Amino acid sequence: MASRRLALNLAQGLRGRSGGLSVPVRRGLATPHSPALKTQTTTLKNGLTVATQYSPYAQTSTVGMWIDAGSRAETDETNGTAHFLEHLAFKGTSKRTQQQLELEIENMGAHLNAYTSRENTVYFARALNEDVPQCVDILQDILQNSKLEESAIERERDVILRESEEVEKQLEEVVFDHLHATAYQQQPLGRTILGPRENIRDITRTELTNYIKNNYTADRMVLVGAGGVPHEQLVEMADKYFAGLPSKSPESAAYLLSKKKADFIGSDVRIRDDTIPTANIAIAVEGVSWNDPDYFTALVTQAIVGNYDKALGNAPHQGSKLSGIVHKNDLATSYMSFSTSYSDTGLWGIYMVTDNLANVDDLVHFSLREWTRLCGSVTPAEVERAKAQLKASILLSLDGTSAVAEDIGRQIVNTGRRMSPGEIERVIDAITEKDVMEFANKKIWDQDIAISAVGSIEGLFDYARIRADMSRNF
């Protein structure tokens, strides 16, 4: 199951049915141009939001429920519950056994899946338009009537423990989990999505049912449709299947804590393991939330720092100044700049992997020197390059109904509205080098940093030395 931070790519193959037009369609003269696709929203009496982007010529649709609840809505004792529930969703309901559920999906040629993040849980289905009502029925069934049988819980417990072992072998996942843990110490955002192994072993049916009762409420859920499902039709289905959802979450201690502003803490965590042939290092400052006015400026600034991968054929020409320095001096195998946003905070930084262990300090130094350069010396050319890359990345990511549904659900759950691609383009186009430098001065210059490092990291300087690089005036 797609259940990790990097598992938001939903474009998996649909088992299709043969079909199509037997006679080619010819475009005649003066046929009307179809209007721009718009996102429509309706809120039901109980507070459930229904949002759609209807494409009249689409033959397939993606429908799903985006829920404003993830690992951040848990406590230390129940950490891992949201992800555990995702696994149990397809193991049978009071109306359908697991076998019936799987056969029903298989017979439609549909695709059903779920994933969990720190702030959201998502259940979605992709199918032919005529099968959308059946998919919505299945979604409401697994969301409201899952049996959560003890035998299924025990089976999935072993599956999740094995998944946890696999995740621990993925160094990027490990580094980013530790980055969150140190940047948001003793806070809900600092917990992992899977939860600690002792929690996975001990989670009970009571904790699972309590999580549903406390978080699967209409005011925190958005039913999304993208493709060939008309808005009115999905609203009718929502009214039929989800009208009985509780309208408001109980204000439990866990709920109140999850809505408390997260405090970013300058700190570091280091796990030295010389059997790992590389140094894997993430450095971040406090970034921006989904609703922050600087959200897109942060993305443009991230794109200026850019990405680098030595294995690519265009490695010497990847555009950013930092990638040129890194390649010329063979400082890294790869690096990736990132801007991760949450409801009230974010992480803006860089993740680096290098096997040049004698020059780890140089890699970190030149990376942070590039950060401080952004505070006072940004050229119009590199801003335009970054803006072009960002717009292309956003628009290319909206290819397919699942990607559109993901964009709608994520934006409405996190910000309350969906910005259209055209609106996003206009906002990005308006960003100037002055905006980038103002952002850098506010968020980067002389700011505390969080560091997470794993592997052969003997050459990584101490925190104070690295922190001093955040205000180098050159």
Automatic annotation (TrEMBL):
Class of this enzyme: hydrolase
GO terms (BP aspect): protein processing involved in protein targeting to mitochondrion
GO molecular function: metal ion binding; metalloendopeptidase activity
Segments forming domain Peptidase M16 N-terminal: 50-197
UniProt-listed InterPro entries: Metalloenz_LuxS/M16, MPP/UQCRC_Complex, Pept_M16_N, Pept_M16_Zn_BS, Peptidase_M16_C
Swiss-Prot/TrEMBL catalytic activity: Release of N-terminal transit peptides from precursor proteins imported into the mitochondrion, typically with Arg in position P2
Cofactor(s) annotated in UniProt: Zn(2+)
Keyword Hydrolase (UniProt): yes
Compartment list: Mitochondrion
Keyword Transferase: no
Cellular component per GO, a single term: mitochondrial matrix
Any Pfam family matching the protein: Peptidase_M16
Keywords linked to the UniProt accession: Hydrolase, Metal-binding, Metalloprotease, Mitochondrion, Protease, Transit peptide, Zinc
Record domain Peptidase M16 C-terminal: where: 202-390
EC number of the protein: 3.4.24.64
Chain's role: Catalytic subunit of the essential mitochondrial processing protease (MPP), which cleaves the mitochondrial sequence off newly imported precursors proteins. Preferentially, cleaves after an arginine at position P2.
Family, as annotated: Belongs to the peptidase M16 family.
Name this protein carries in UniProt: mitochondrial processing peptidase
High-level lineage: Eukaryota, Fungi, Dikarya, Ascomycota, Pezizomycotina
